[in-house]
Write a structure and sequence with these properties.
The protein has 285 residues and is α/β, with parallel strands linked by helices. It has one domain: TIM Barrel. It is built from nine helices and twelve strands. The chain has a six-stranded parallel beta sheet. The chain is globular and about 50 Å long.
């Protein structure tokens, strides 16, 4: 059973416009990344309270806190970052969700020229930090969904599988994103096959292979790129998947802090995924 959700800030910075568009698309869940161009972890308590009231009044829930936790260099101060992580856990309680989207760290100094072959030097520190967060999450009955984002430790199928199998915690699962594998010149089918046993969350966007380096600056409608989304959806159906499929189309661009699709294009992205889901035998719940 697939429950549709959305990174609603791709529609608009205005939460009321986000909700209006999602209601028209028959989507009632949000992966909460930002409102008013301010990240969820930087919002004031009053802003959080106002947004929670809006969600309640409109009958919306959250699929997860779409946090940027772990999207910092591996050599940054861990204790400071851990305080932000604890805020994300706190917000799970406020919004009544068990999920937090997380990442597994950029290279030292966030070096754009970092050779990915050097990641083994930093593997133990990545594992230590991720295990610490998983232990804290487990104590709070929270589940962390690791996204296979480009340039982080877990951006290849092998490193995602290594990370999740080594930490070996039910509080740390995979958020499978076919487009991210494609963008980073990994095979999304290999990505699914090597990480499906850990996958408990799906991000839905598609991309042409090669990312910006190949001139592909925007996401494409699901099913029209190189992400082979149908393969993972068929696999999820076969596994009896019960969870969220979160729309994150990036149709007008995307970067480290989010993406843009717009209120006009977002409905097309939703319906394209619904068509894939139907063809693959998946049921929406």
């Amino acid at each position: 059973m697939f429950t549709l959700s959305a990174f609603a800030d791709e529609i608009s910075p205005d939460p009321r416009e986000q909700i209006a568009v999602l209601k028209s698309c028959r989507v009632r869940f949000i992966e909460f990344r930002s409102i008013y161009k301010t990240n969820v972890l930087a919002l004031s308590d009053e802003q959080i309270k106002e947004f929670k009231k809006l969600l309640d009044d409109e009958g919306f829930g959250l699929s997860a806190i779409g946090s940027p936790i772990g999207k910092v260099a591996i050599d940054t101060d861990f204790n400071e970052h851990l305080d932000k992580f604890k805020r994300a856990i706190e917000l799970c309680g406020v919004f009544g969700t068990r999920g937090i989207r997380v990442f597994s760290y950029y290279p030292p100094g966030n070096d754009p020229n970092f050779d990915r072959a050097n990641w083994p030097k930093y593997r133990d520190e990545v594992i230590r930090r991720m295990r610490t967060k998983a232990e804290l999450a487990a104590k709070s009955n929270v589940v962390l969904f690791h996204e296979n984002e480009h340039r982080i430790y877990g951006d290849t199928p092998d490193r995602v599988a290594d990370l999740l199998s080594t930490v070996n915690s039910p509080a740390l699962r995979a958020a499978y994103d076919a487009a991210n594998y494609t963008y980073g010149n990994c095979d999304p089918v290999e990505g699914w096959e090597k990480t499906k046993a850990f996958t408990a969350h799906l991000h839905i966007k598609d991309w042409k292979r090669g990312g910006h380096a190949a001139g592909h600056e925007y996401g494409v409608i699901a099913g029209t790129g190189d992400g082979n989304i149908a393969h993972s959806i068929k696999g999820a159906v076969a596994m009896g998947y019960k969870g969220y499929a979160v729309l994150e189309p990036h149709l007008r661009g995307g970067g480290p802090t989010g993406g843009i699709t717009g209120p006009d294009l977002f409905p097309y992205a939703v319906e394209a995924f619904r068509a894939i889901l139907q063809k693959c035998g998946g049921k929406e719940g």
